[in-house]
Automatic annotation (TrEMBL), chains A, B:
Lineage, broadest ranks: Bacteria, Pseudomonadati, Bacteroidota, Sphingobacteriia, Sphingobacteriales
Keywords: DNA-binding, Transcription, Transcription regulation
Taxonomic source organism: Mucilaginibacter ginsenosidivorax
Record CDD domains: HTH_LacI, PBP1_EndR-like
InterPro entries xref list: HTH_LacI, LacI/GalR-like_sensor, Lambda_DNA-bd_dom_sf, Peripla_BP_I
Entries under Gene3D superfamilies matching the protein: 3.40.50.2300, lambda repressor-like DNA-binding domains
HTH lacI-type domain mapped to chain residues: 5-62
Alphabetized GO MF terms: DNA-binding transcription factor activity; transcription cis-regulatory region binding
Family annotation (Pfam families): LacI, Peripla_BP_3
Protein name: LacI family transcriptional regulator
SMART domains in the record: HTH_LACI (SM00354)
Length: 342, 342
């Protein structure tokens, strides 16, 4: 184990005042108009020497618990798992610990978890919220608790949100399939009224409409923890729609289930059915053929979530500005959606 | 939202006493000698009606926080993410919330997290522990805190442990490669002194020795968050060892990196190199060819972890019995390790 360095050690080593180091480490550089060069120098040094802020001392000094509650839909989903991990890393470097839980998209479980986090005196909340907890979030905000939502928002709830451009992402992916000459394009997704999921369906529908008369084929499957309950309806869909020549899957999970059915039925992409899925991960990259995917910028999402939350934690003014940040996705075009791919 | 059911409602519906229902829901059925049939009947009913224990009321009654701290190595690793999720589900059904964190295998971060959990008054700890926290765990145990370790143990620390039979698993996988006629079998893994990793190397070495004179080829790669720092040495290994005709990878992560290098270099399994990896997941199942994998019984691990912890939470006697449970893995033989596979 390394000997613990103090802020004084860092200040001496870099010949910078202790106060400046402290502002930088507490995410207050911008507020205190500290130059980006100096911030970079300090953060680089801190990373090199492996400095970890002494959170207990800090907590006693500031009256804060230095913990942040993070709620994702399902920690076993690779998208949420990687975001949670990145948020945890970035928070830890800033002296905050993250405690996280899965909401299961269950309103009453989420309310339970919010109460638990309140009891544990977390300093702030990061959530990919299910529907139905609008009042709970408003009550947190009324109590002065910073709340940052990501992945989706709750219409009517005024707080900071980090999202991706879901509508454009599926619009763009659908156009790509059309450009490749696919005609009977289906959108297969989990049934959901969450904003990000509604936008994904609309992006597909808008692209289909923009191209004329074709009927849209939207298959919504009810989510179930038991994968066989997802595979059954999916299998029926493939069997009942032999004319479909391309599918856009709405999430990585449904996309992976779709690939399993295709393997089972001996259907190859792109010759039998072209395939694109939302969310990129190793399953799609290593598949033969590799699967075209709408990659979400997970690092950027994590960076923005934690930056916005730290700003709010450090600026408890009565009317803080609200940020709604929309990040771009990246359509990774691979052989599964290319008409003339070998 | 469903109307909240109480224990009384359940007792009335099933015509069973309230006390019995309570014992069952608190994991005390065995201790109270309640028959397995009745336990199953109650748990099935509870699952059907979606009963959630009222944790606040229970906490007031019992003086417990009804939260459990769970520390895994890296929540973005699919093995830990799925275990964490299953533990969370099972704990929640028993009226406990799980708050979790990644230790990053970092001793000082883990100590920090233990302190944080202590401050938050968790009732018990579940950990896949890094090395170097032996004293911290012993101090928790001395204070009467239930601590259940999983995935690995800490030599000398007396507490409950749930593990798999790592040594036999790699022994068996290596024997399978030998039976298929592969001769130059390498074991590629992350450098680690953790018990599960040491056992995996030994299982491979024992199998090699049992078969005569062949030299063992063990390549240990230093773990790095930056995947390119793993890919570089792995690429060098493939290039520097053209005679290797089979590789057993020590974890899902290193196995996936290995497959990426094989794709990059145009090496096919099993014709160029046969492949087996520890840990099974969608990447291996959907790969062409499907990858032979040592599947850990994640559901069973989660069930045992939570059962043992609940038993300890409900039995605070001064000298509780310690359990060391070793579960079996399942070698899922697929085309990547079959000599005559197409």
């Amino acid at each position: 184990m390394k000997k613990k360095l103090s802020i004084v050690d860092i200040a001496n080593a870099l010949n910078v005042s202790k106060t400046t180091i402290s502002f930088i480490l507490n995410g207050r550089a911008q507020e205190k108009r500290i130059g980006a060069d100096l911030v970079e120098k300090v953060m680089k040094y801190v990373a090199e020497v492996g400095y970890k802020p002494n959170s207990l001392a800090k907590s006693l000094r500031t009256g804060k618990s230095n913990t942040i509650g993070l709620m994702v839909e399902d920690i076993s989903n690779p998208f949420f798992a990687s975001i949670a991990r990145l948020i945890e890393d970035r928070a830890y470097k800033n002296g905050y610990k993250i405690i996280y839980c899965s909401t299961d998209n269950d309103t009453s479980k989420t309310q339970d978890l919010i109460n638990m986090f309140r009891d544990r005196h977390v300093d702030g909340y990061i959530m990919a919220p299910p529907e139905g907890i609008e009042e709970d979030i408003e009550s947190l905000i009324k109590d002065g608790m910073p709340v940052v939502l990501f992945d989706r928002h709750l219409p009517g709830v005024k707080t900071d949100v980090i999202e991706v451009d879901n509508l454009f992402s599926t619009y763009n992916a659908t156009r790509h399939l059309m450009d490749q000459g696919f005609k009977n394009i289906a959108f297969v997704t989990f049934a959901s009224h969450q904003t990000q999921m509604m936008d994904r369906v609309r992006g597909y529908q808008d692209a289909m409409k923009s191209n004329g008369l074709r009927p849209t084929i939207v298959k919504e499957i009810v989510f179930n923890q038991d994968e066989e309950q997802i595979m059954g309806p999916l299998r029926d869909f493939f069997k009942g729609n032999p004319d479909v020549d391309a599918i856009l899957f709405g999430t990585n999970h449904i996309g992976t289930c779709g690939l399993k059915i295709m393997h089972e039925m001996g259907l190859k992409a792109p010759t039998d059915i072209a395939v694109i899925s939302f969310d990129d991960y190793d399953v799609f990259k290593l598949h033969s053929p590799p699967i075209t995917a709408i990659a979400q910028p997970v690092e950027e999402i994590a960076d923005n979530v934690i930056t916005v939350l730290l700003e709010k934690l450090n600026d408890r003014s009565s009317s803080p500005k609200l940020q709604s940040i929309i990040l771009k996705t990246d359509l990774k075009i691979r052989n599964s959606s290319l008409k003339n791919a070998i």
